[in-house]
Amino acid sequence: MRGLAERFGRLTSTGLVLAVLVVAIVLGAILTATEGRNFFSLGNVSAILVATSVLGFVAIGQTLVILTGSIDLSVSYVVSLTTVLAATTMDGSSGNVVPAVLLVLAVAAAIGFVNGAVVSFLHVHGFIATLGMGLIISGYLAVNYAGPTGDAPRSFALIGATRIGPVPLPVLIMLGCALLMILMLRRTRVGHQVYAVGGNPQVARLSGVRTSVPVITAHVLCSMLTALAGLLLVARTQVGNPTAGTQGQYDLMSIAAVVLGGTLLAGGKGNITGTLAGVAIFAVMDNVMAALQTDPFLRDAIRGAVIVAAVAVYARREIDRRPARFERPGVLDAALQEAK
Amino acid sequence: MTDSQVTETRTTAPLPYHAHGLGARALAVLATPGGAVLVLAIALLLATIAANPNFGDPGVLIRFLGRTAPIAIVALGQYYVIVSGEFDLSMGAVIAAQVVIAGNFIGEDESRIIPGLVLMLLLGVGIGVVNGLVTTLLQVPSFITTLAMMLALGGLVDYLSGGAATGNPPDKFREIGRGAIEDVPVVDVIPYPLIILTVLCVAAAWLMRRPFGRTLIAVGDNPDAAAVSGARVWRVKTQAFVLSSLASTVAGILLVGYAGVHPSVGQGYEFMAITAVVLGGVVLGGGRGWVLSAVAGAFALELLFTLLTALEIESTWRDSVQGLIIIAALAVSARAWTLGRGRRTSPPPKTADRPTEPTPGTNIGEN
């Protein structure tokens, strides 16, 4: 009991993110109620959960990559590529579902491997390596696919439509993947190496970590999780769309969700629970703005403001918690001092 | 050791960097990524002329330079931010906002050109200050600050314009972007954008040799060391963001001449600019790279596209080729900086948002 109290007394970054999520839900419920609608109705809750699933897959993968100190900007193109590859391979027949899923996972793993290898062996910054990979895929898509193609069979579409109670099956799969990744980060050697390399690659290397292993693992897992997001989109729309990923802005939104979830963009610190909360905050925000019938263009502006406000809150917290060493004034204090 | 002794030591044993003549040093520069981009640009230029002899005509070439000026100016602006160790993802959105303002505020009224320009420049400064202060004082990573600024500005622009083309500024305003000094011998015309770019390049080269430029690089290399040595990190970085959004503003003014008024003008310019800057050998994470190499990077990128067109490669493959070239160029330049610096084995870690002291027990969090 006392341990529990201590845990609540010492608010961690993740605790703070979850608190922000609770605030978002409460505010959302009140705002939705003013429109005369019930935020907690079965339909609405399940709509929010569905909204979290696609971005959720991508953001879990992005968390792994960002934890190693890299970044993945190719995810939205991987989503697009996955949808067209899966839909064209399935081609309307249930027998092709398993080969199609295996094919896209293999392709995604290969893309992730190349990303990771370029980052760790050629020493190209992750930002550029994955931007380049994104461009390469984008060229391939532009050459080969003009518009929506392929056809997913009904049996595959059922995966997107099935729900257990109020919880849609895709959300359960997403949570399952999240759990696996959490276990990997907390219980396996490579998981610990992810944090070590993200925290300080030199120190990790000198401590005997082969730094390429966690970086490549993270990139491969990220691409494969992104492919699952693409498969989910196919299950929902039953066609492959070469612009599905770029329309969803999964690259930038997943990074925003990861940072909103309290993970340091420089790597080495953060976790998947926070990221899931970050994705949920986005979903709640979108749901409430839809209920209030906010102008869709204005939504982007509000989203931007909320991201900065939330991240600023965490950032200030990081500074406050740092032990004082040289009695150095904070940046704000220094600015005020100068203004005098 | 007294002062005279120091002077004597210097004259007898010059620093390794200055040990050779000017020619040898210039050659050595070409072996660094910042110099190599010049070789790359010239090689691409020669290849383009070989594929399409028409391109070698001075008149055609100078028009190409004029057309490329806006992206070069955006790269110039992005350079300041990248060399200080940050990112600016809002440049495309700033261009769109300025273009829409030009369309809506100036409209067909020629008397509003000057107030319109003043308004656009003020907005540019304002956006830069907000980006800079949120990044430095609120300690939000610039990737997120400017991403949010991109979302917010883009959303507002679409909201105000309804997402479609609006207004049409007078031809006199559009002249800035598409006009030129006529009847020049040899090159036929000198486009105004090229003149503006030249002025900005000279100013940038001068600025980077001023205390501001030196501090900017020091801050990008190691913000903590720079702060301890007395640099006002927050101020220098904010100034870099202001310069970057001002560059977007100028590019926006020029682009109105070419592309007219539409909220999609400037889309993707931020990534183009980052690519150009990095192609120019500037290290992501800050502290290393020359400003004019960033501009050369922009020209190299555009020359590459022109070459692909001249070779009649399907335009849809352009993205793929661009991606491959960027990765290859960066892989080579990562090697070159490593060799040039001897001891450094990897790019400097980004220290901007990393706590100086590890906080025990928080690495795994409360999963």
Automatic annotation (TrEMBL), chain A:
This protein's record includes keyword Transmembrane helix: yes
Topology term for the membrane: Multi-pass membrane protein
Gene Ontology MF terms in the entry: transmembrane transporter activity
Keywords: Cell membrane, Membrane, Transmembrane, Transmembrane helix
Subcellular location: Cell membrane
Gene Ontology CC, one term: plasma membrane
UniProt name for this protein: Ribose transport system permease protein
Statement: the UniProt record of this protein carries the keyword Cell membrane: yes
Subcellular location, principal: membrane
Residues passing through the membrane, by range: 12-33, 39-58, 65-88, 100-122, 127-147, 167-185, 215-235, 272-291
Domain of life: Bacteria
UniProtKB/TrEMBL annotation, chain B:
GO CC term (a single one): plasma membrane
InterPro entries linked: ABC_transp_permease (IPR001851)
Domain of life: Bacteria
Membrane topology: Multi-pass membrane protein
Keyword annotations of the record: Cell inner membrane, Cell membrane, Membrane, Transmembrane, Transmembrane helix, Transport
Region span, Disordered: 341-367
Entry protein name: Autoinducer 2 import system permease protein LsrD
CDD domains: TM_PBP1_transp_AraH_like
Regions that span the bilayer: 26-49, 61-82, 89-107, 113-133, 140-160, 189-208, 240-261, 267-284, 291-311, 323-340
Species of the source: Nocardioides thalensis
Cell compartments where the protein resides: Cell membrane
Molecular function GO terms recorded: transmembrane transporter activity
Signal peptide: none
Xref: Pfam families: BPD_transp_2 (PF02653)
